[in-house]
Amino acid sequence: MNSKKITFYATHVCPYCLLADQLLKSQGISADQIDKIYIDENTIARQEMMKITQRRTVPQIFIGPTHVGGYDDLVNLHKKHLLQPLLNSLFSNN
Question: Which homologous superfamily does the CATH classification assign to the domain defined by 6-91?
């Protein structure tokens, strides 16, 4: 996991993964700042995700080393105006 990127565990058929991706991009995040890991293609990554997060669902999102959680968690951060400061803290030195 890259501590200077967003790590995004996803599947190709997950609508919440698409929504989370759109929300991040609406906050000024570019595709090259997101390390997408498709667990439907990589069973080792799926096992790693479940071990790290103790969750089986996608998306699972890390902003740097911070585990944000899934789509609902990301939206809640956004609604509380906590998402942008978290993103700024990660990318402010770029």
Answer: Glutaredoxin (3.40.30.10)
